[in-house]
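Data availability excerpt. The first of two example chains:
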Amino acid sequence: MAEAVRPVTHRRVLTIALPIVISNATVPILGAVDTGVVGQLGLAAPIGAVGLGAVILTGLYWVFGFLRMGTTGLTSQAQGAGRQGEVAALLTRALMIGFAGGLVIILLQAPLFWAAFRLAPASAEVEGLARHYMAIRVWSAPAMIALFGMTGWLIARERTRAVLAIQVLMNGLNILLDLWFVLGLDWGVAGVARATVIAEWGGLALGLWFCRDAFGVPAWRDWAQVFDPERLRNMASVNTDILLRSLMLEGIVISFLFLGSDFGDATLAANQVLLQFLHITAHALDGFAFAAEALVGQAVGARNRAALRQAALRTSQWGLGIIAVLATGFALWGGALINLMAKAPEVQAEAQAYLIYMVLAPILGLAAWMLDGIFIGATRTRDMRNMMAVSLMIYVVAVIVLMPLIGNHGLWAALLISYVARGLTLGLRYPALERAVASQRSANASVVGPER
């Protein structure tokens, strides 16, 4: 039976969102420390090796990013429907998928690493050090991928303070071990890798402790429920749609980087600097998009149309406020930020020429970011997949038409057009979501049936 849905207040939205925003803010600190401690060795190759190895492993783990989003949507709906047994079983499924995915990467590391270095060639010295780094760090792959699912589960339960605590522990432990292993024990690149492995398994251990209430519900190891074919098919469908949608989105980002390289080194560097503005925007909005996932999912699980609309509006109002601050900040201080990130005068001048797109990006991208959260919570992943395909086609057409006319300006315009297309197409599908909830025919109806 569905639970009574609590009112979606501004306080409740902030309670979910702010820990995620703070958690995201800690991520660049770790990268800076990793680079800094290796930089103390006085050689260029170790810095490049750690950076390249981290990018490759992050890319491999990213393939399983669907686990975070899919788990949030399904768990929040089970929570809203009052199905505590299914909430516990979903955690078990997510952990099992995460561990299995990590083991696959460990077993296939040789061909995966070979393929990665063919796509991103480096000097023999850098590649050798990077391989050594990755051969050590890959042993935490099961922990990291399982953490995707666990994070999604905690977000769905509105326990984002636990997510923040996990991130702080992982980053803090990693930094301390970096300093000890590299500067104290002189382990070099291997020390950075070992520090990360220990920190990531430590984060998983803390996460399991935060999830201990789920292990008090017998359903977490009720294998008939955990492996229920209907629920597994639904979970596979949701996750497959999210994976396909994410691959298309990644295709836009990668093509943007590759196409930008045709305009020369200064423009390529300027584009890289400006992409940091988009990362700042995404990290700032993540908290409110995640809040939308949890609150919308609970409303859909409870089949409460009013709560769904309230969740969508409240989280989007905060998203709009964040966007207003960011757009204003980029307009006023974007030039100074560019000069801080890039010291080459030609890169500074080139980036300044495209700063207007950074002011427009948060405004034009708000609907896409927030509707992503709303549709993930509702597990309307087929809509997300299909509308992403439409947006990708619109982006391709925009690139073909605009780049020959206005060069790099056309490339940036095409990227922003893809944001507008995503927001507009998902927005056109939103009324169908409300109608489905009102008529008790949500896309996840098969998961919110009678409890075992």
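And the second chain:
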Amino acid sequence: MTAERSRHDHFPRADAARRQRIRVAVAAADADWRAIDSAPGGLLAAIEALRGASADIAVARLLPWLDDMRWLQDRLGVALALLAADPFLRPPLRLVAGSDGGTGGLLLADHGAVRLTLLVRPAEGSVEAPPNCVFVPGRAAIRVIASGGASLISHEVAVSAAEETGGFMASVAAQCHSHPPRPLRNGETLHLDTARQSHSLVGAKRDILLLELAVQPPSPLPIRAYDIASGRLIHVSASRRDSSFRAMALTLLRQFGRTDAAPLFASETRSEDFAARWNAMRELVALDPAATRSRLAAMAAADPHPEVRGAAAAAERLIFPPSGETGREGGGGMGLCTSRAPSTPYCTDHQ
């Protein structure tokens, strides 16, 4: 029985001339697009001109790129022509995957706080509503290119001015409320205050195609995930992109058991972002619990955020219990939440 061969098995490794033609074609297209985008009137030039502007103003000024999509049609036409010329050529378009694991697409611009993405939601992944919805500080405009026959369910959550400026606490966070589904319409543009508004797409009969403009400036308000059925807050994470990148890096270092990187973890426990501080402490405790006792105690006593102090105190009692009790110590898979620890979105088991 012959094993099925991949198209990559036919890649022209031995054809140096063909591979050179591929490199030249890709480089030329990339240079052309960069020049077009950076020239006056181009997409990147328009985004750069909005540096420092509020999210509302940025979305309003960039809406023409969603209303008139001839520039996108031209770009996709060039990409398809390149593929037609050689199926092993990869057009200079960055592929992205959605957080739900099914959505994917093309990142068309990513500059400062602004991202413009062409998203495809497969029909098979948009039949039933997801269990959770997520709120990210910022604003968004989403042009529906193809609705796929789907319905839209809107989700809303209240956010106070104090929460937006750094006073968010999970214990008093408002619940999420969902609206009845309504048909998603081809050509419509959804305008969202994404700190307070989210949505789910359900009942799709065909693939859904969306052009999404998101403006997400740094914010002390965290990203929040809610259980749709109950409206309950279930998870909190840092919304700043730099904090998110560092959090992913710390998780990877912890999984590799890199105890020599402990100073990086310790540095992040002093972050301005309270969710980033607690995430770094959780990762550090999971990496090397015996070496973190003093830092955990200091966070429990003096962290500026009351819920971080509470989570740190609970973790300290769990890992370093009073004399005569048995604590839990372990490696990278150690859980920091049990019945003795607070049930909050800050207290999450490492899987």
